[in-house]
Amino acid sequence: MSCTSCSTATGGKPGGCKSNGGCSTGGCNRMNTHDWLRNLPIADMESACKVIEVSFSQGTRKDFFRNTALQPYEKGDLIAVEGVSGFDVGEVSLTGEIVRLQMKKRNVKEDNPDMKKVLRRATDRDIDIRNQNKAREPEAVIRSRAIAKQLKLDMKISQVEMQADGRKATFFYIADGRVDFRELIKVYASEFKVKVEMRQIGARQEAGKVGGIGSCGRELCCSTWLTDFSSVNTTAARYQNLSINQTKLSGQCGRLKCCLNYELDTYLDALQHFPDNCDVLQVAKGNAFLVKKDIFKNLMWYTLPDSNKQYPLSIERVNNIKSLNQQGIRPEELEPVDLSSKTVEKEPEFVELVGQISLKSLDKAAADKKRKQHQQGNQQRNQQGGNQQRPSQRQQGQGGNQQRNQQGGQQRPNNPNRNQQGGQQQRPNNPNRNQQRPNNPNRNQQGGNQQRPSNPDGKKE
């Protein structure tokens, strides 16, 4: 319900049903009608349509007015028209030849003498007066409902529409039966100081005036394009194999949804080739009762009295059983259609424009990255723990060094080329070997020269 031309309307407000900006297409107006004859050239100006369609209250009410001055008006212009003892301000919704089609649709004659006239273009003063009177409508609704409740009338005031000059007010109400509101009109006239007009509407018209979003996610049909409200009953739901659930089948107006009638004709055409009078089939196990008809698969579902299982039968099989029953023969089995043998379509795998991507490789890369981060965290914790333990090892002094030398001496015999006996005898002779390392940088060379004679093979350790 918005367009690009009004998305950047005055004040930077967004477009939509609030009609914040001017729009040549009328997309921001309720009950909008596309003028597909707008660019049609007119050969004779005398035969051109002199009637224009004007919408009030953002399209909730529309009426026809005669353009006696033959002034050119465009869609969306605000004009002042004749009202009850004054004037009213509305928005031009249609002009040109398409107005004649709309008048024919609503059974309005073009030469009707009672048709009101267009006065002028709306001035700034007219618009200011209209805005002031429109601001009184919400308070009038609350007050009028309280008065109707005090008079104990079985009715509901749905909406109050003020005329632009504030001399007339139209009260839209909902009632199940006939209401005697003669006393109510007197109270309203003295309370609001206006001429009162009472107009009864239905629940569907009220939903169209209030508006809203349906269960389908779109705006209500009654508030956007639907003008004629046909009766809807539960038979339409049964033909479409819908469960009779009042909560799901009801709209915001509390009545059955109007969209139940949209596909009803298609279902009726599809059900013509299904056999009639096949609600009960006689078989050896008992009577099979019809549950539903599937027009998409051309199947009829039956159930037997001994179980709750449903059996799908083809139309040909149903006709055969029906012909056998007419001859007094009961078949042994229903012979239902095997639906499990049908192949299930495999969903296509994800394919990128540059090629296929394996999600396993992405998972492996994420796992490797997580493992590396875990290892780095362990190394940092080990380094911090080693720095904390080093002072305690240094305080041990010579005893700790001797313990490490003994462990080293026990591991060295694993080398078969080393003299085990000499190595074990020489290492205890120098208990301060590790302490002398920082003071003697050439210790390793001297120690290596001293140990070489102890190796009979002359090999390096």
Work out the helicity level: 25-40%
Largest sheet: 5 strands, antiparallel
Give the N-to-C terminal Cα separation.
91 Å
Order of helices and strands: EEEEHEHHEEHEHHHHHEEEEHEEHHHH
Primary descriptors:
single chain, 461 residues, alpha+beta, GMP Synthetase, Chain A, domain 3, 4-stranded antiparallel β-sheet, 14 helices, extended
Describe the model.
Among the domains are: 31-122, no CATH class; 132-208, GMP Synthetase, Chain A, domain 3 (2-Layer Sandwich); 230-273, no CATH class; 274-326. 33% of the residues lie in helices and 16% in strands. It is extended. It is α+β, with helices and mostly antiparallel strands. Helix 3 (137-150) crosses helix 4. The protein has helices spanning 98-105, 124-134, 137-150, 182-192, 203-210, 221-224, 234-239, 246-249, 264-270, 315-326, 359-396, 398-411, 420-426, 443-451; strands spanning 51-56, 61-66, 78-82, 87-94, 118-121, 156-162, 168-174, 195-200, 280-283, 286-294, 299-303, 310-314, 351-352, 355-356. The model is unreliable at 7-11, 14-27, 391-403, 405-426 and 440-456 (pLDDT under 50).
